[in-house]
Each structure stands twice: as structure tokens, then as C-alpha cells.
Amino acid sequence: MAGIGRIAFLGTGAFGVPLLGRLAEVADELLVITRPDRPAGRGLAPRASPIANQGRALGLRIETPARIRSAEAAAAIGDFAPDGLLLVAYGQLVPGDLLAVGSRPALNVHPSVLPRHRGAAPVAGTILAGDAEAGVSLMIMVPQLDAGPIVGQWSVPVSGRETTPELEARLAALAAERIPPALAAWAERRLDPQPQDESRATLIRPFRRSDGWIDWGHSALAIDRQVRALQPWPGAWTTLGGRRLHIRRTTPLPGIPDVPIGALLPGAQPRVACGEGAVALDIVQPEGRPAMPGEAWRRGLARDFVLLGALRPADLEPAG
Description:
single chain, 320 residues, alpha/beta, Rossmann fold, Methionyl-tRNA Fmet Formyltransferase, Chain A, domain 2, seven-stranded mixed β-sheet, five-stranded antiparallel β-sheet, 9 helices, 16 strands, 26% helix, 25% strand, elongated
């Protein structure tokens, strides 16, 4: 593949890591723009973004402005004089003046089959919706969120058992395979932009911790999707005895009639009655303890009848 010119690569999350590695082989020169290192972990030691780590391993030039709408960011990109910008899970909206930098239209790689699941959590949105396929879209960036014309789109079937990290890794590999040839067409001015159908657009907003709370009145299939989708953040959780019980892995099952919603069904395997069906609690994590198999957690319960989810998120917030 011929070189694709000087590219300013704006990215932060792990989704863009395989693609950055591939572009390092085919771009004439790369500038990586990512977020600054942030305190993380119990020791609050500075931690670089996945893209910063990859860029440093590849020996690439890296800039870490706190805000893309800053003079620092504009100067770094302007001095580099890229042929075009490529944004991959960067996490900030790019201002209009930067979209005009370079001789090519700025492009964005988005992990969904647009116009479905615009916004901050497209992979989780795909799982939550129970979509039969997931995908990667390459679009021209416009000021509106994820609304630009599509210049490339690739999809893969969804098994219905993936977690968000697992599906994101599949889509990251797909992007690394399919995006570079499309960027060759970008370099040769051979793009064929297709407008998005606004009538089919959906938006997935950033999650809050309260979004992880499980309403056992929902169907077992919906709850299982919630558990798989909301990893690693905010995680799916319920309450027991005034404390959170994090639900890490479930399996949807048939239910038993006339059992209170949220109650554990009889048997060694912890199964919870839902609004429709039941879910087996395969892996759980009690608050303040490590994750464990559901059966081990069930054996440690002091009583036979257990009702989960009596407290809602607001009940756990401190008063005042």
C-alpha cells in the first residue's frame, strides 16, 4: 500500500490501538494527539492513555493537550501541517477550525453501524439494543456529533454473548484491517460520501453509575444484555442488605411462575426471578470483596429466602 501522507491521529481509548499500529506502517508521518496522563489506581500514579502507550512504543511524536479547543492543540497540529485529521475514540468534540486543517476532509472512525448508536458508548449501545450486527463506520467529520457523511462501513454478526470489551476488541481488529485501504482512497481524493439517514439515527449518552442498577422486573434477556454491555463502566449491580452486589456474568434461563421478582430460586445455582424468565448469577462481586462464582456466593448466604434489589440507587445516596 502506498503511503497515505501526513496524518494527525486523535485518539485516547483502546479501540484505536490496533489501527494506530497499522497506520505506523503505511503513513508517511504520524502525529498522535491524546489526553494527558491521569492519576489512577490506589497510589494515584500517572497513567497514560492506551493510545499514548502505543504511540510511545512505536516511537511516534505525541502531544497531550488537556483540551483540543486550546491554543496548545491548535499550534501542535498547525506546526505538523498534516494532510488530514483522523479521529478514533478521542473523547472530545473537535472545533470547526481544526476540521479545516489539511487538504483532505477530516475523518472519524466510529464503532457502530451508523446512524445507529451515535455518541459516547456505541459498542455498549449495540449490545443493549440486542442488535444482530455490530460494525465500524468511517465518516467525514462535521460539527454535529457523529452525523457526517459515511465514506466506508463494515459490519460483523453479533453472537449475543459478547461483553462490551470483547466486542470492542473485535471491532478494533476490524478497523485495523479495513480502514487503511480506505485511507488510501482518501489520499487519492476518491471518497464517495453517502449522507446518513437521520430518521434512523439513535444516540447513546455517557453512562452514570445509576445506569448499572438492575430492575429485576425487566426480562431476563434485557438484564443479561445490561450485564454484558455495562462492562467495565458502570457495571451492573443490585442490592442486598443495604449494600451493592455487582453482577459480573449472567445466563438467561426460563423462569418459574409465582415467584416474587428479584427472589433467588431454589437450588445451589443462584437464579433470580425476572419479569420474564430468570437469570443465573454466574459471577458476582459483593461490595468490598473480590469477584467469585455465583454458587460460592450462594453457599455463604445465611438464609434461604433472598430478595435482591429492594434498594434503588437513590436509596444508597448519602442524606443531606
